[in-house]
Amino acid sequence: MLAREHIDNLSALLGAGGLLTGEADMAGYEKGARYDSGRAAFVARPASTEAVSAVVAYCARYAIPLVPQSGNTGLVAGSTPDDSGTQGVLSLERLRSTFELDLDNRTVRVDAGFRLSEINARLKPHGLFFPIDLGANPMAGGMVASNTGGARFLRFGDVRRNTLGLKVVLGDDAGTTVDLGAGLRKDNTGVDWKQHFIGTAGAFGVITECTFNLERLPQQTATAYLVSRSSEHVTVLLNAMEERLGTYLSAFEGMSGAAITRTLAHVEALRNPFPGGAVPDFVILAEVSRSWLPRAAEQPLDAVLEEVLADIWSLPEEPLGDAFVGPAHEMWALRHALSEGVKSSGYVVGLDLSFPRGELMRFRQRMNDLLAVEFPAVAICDFGHVGDGGVHFNLVVPKLADGTNDMATAETLRGRVIAVAVEEHGASFSAEHGLGRRNQHFYDRYTPPKLKSMAAQLKQAIAPASIGTARLG
Predict the structure, then answer these.
(1) What pTM value is reported for the model?
(2) Closest by Cα among 447, 434, 381, 446 to 77
(3) What does the pLDDT read at residue 251?
(4) What is the pLDDT of residue 142?
(5) Number of DSSP helices (H) and strands (E) in the chain, helices first
(6) Distance between CA atoms of residues 231 and 227, nearest Å
(7) What element of type H or E holds 362?
(8) Helices (H), 37-146
(9) C or N terminus of the chain, fewer CB within 10 Å?
(10) What does the alpha-carbon distance between residue 130 and residue 141 come to, in Å, rounded to a whole number?
């Protein structure tokens, strides 16, 4: 338990409502979005960058470990304390003062506590959006710290690509605050320091402010469900669509039949869109979009998509087995419900993997064969971003006879799948979920010693304090 003196001093630094210590008050900050939980020494809720600096400096001086927490929507135990009761949670939820839109530069500067939905709601009247499309609703700081991607990565890229500037409080005993970038899209005057804080899970400091690139809201969209003739033809289909549609192609999402079936059973509001209710083994959701309103004599996007699909249908490789164009809101409603639908069917081992695009479907087939032999009771309910080589490889593990979760099988399964993905297919074990306690073992195992040494030296130089859950050295 943290000494009362520290609690009193931190409370004085933060003012009324800035520090939580009661069990009931801290409960929501100690439990993650899925399964992970711990016990906090306190929850600090600073309302400004200056207050974040004061808390970080104090905790660094007295060797009090801090876990920065943004929207707490992550799935790798990266934003919750461990079970020791010695770590403080540093919540960003009250960092909500700055929201500055620059229409000429097509950027927005926001405090780290704004959620993605809030940012885009404010931008919509201006015909703009921050082009990260997620099933969750994270805060700006957490999106940067984990470098999220989303369903439209194929067209717009990830958070890294769309981050033009940051304000960061370093993990040192001064709580040093640094401004990194000023909304410039081109700046080759030295080290691009902001990149060290994107995707590194808060290990080097706390992001308090972000400057984001914005894109024009799509004004026309068309979507279709596609069924390839075989798993080997998925990449052929993707390449054919990219060749014919170029930047019109904004999403190419894969959904397994098992994930769709569980979701349709769980979410009553969803309509089964497949003829006769027969769900295919694997379905692609393809989207094309334009950022301008329809023009006279311009071919509608539905017609463009149908024409392209007809052309692909006649290719010698015959990659397309079935296809139908449908309402975008209905098709995306199913895609966005998959995570919740899968979670409802049992204990989920959720793996966020990315591959060279040509390897993704080969990995899926390898796993179907391997798990049928080694883990026959486990259901594969995957979905993800085929267009960028990413997959949320979700595995539903049956409960034990006494009704409890089979954690031993879950952990064995996690290690087995990641070993095959990384060692046989050149995958990343964390495509966009970031590093947390759940991925630490794999970072330790697969990161070359020299790179770990370089990360340790960098951390010692700029953030020697114990901050975040990831150990990079």
Answers:
(1) 0.94
(2) 434
(3) 97
(4) 95
(5) 15, 19
(6) 9
(7) helix 357-374
(8) 49-61, 116-123, 140-146
(9) N
(10) 14
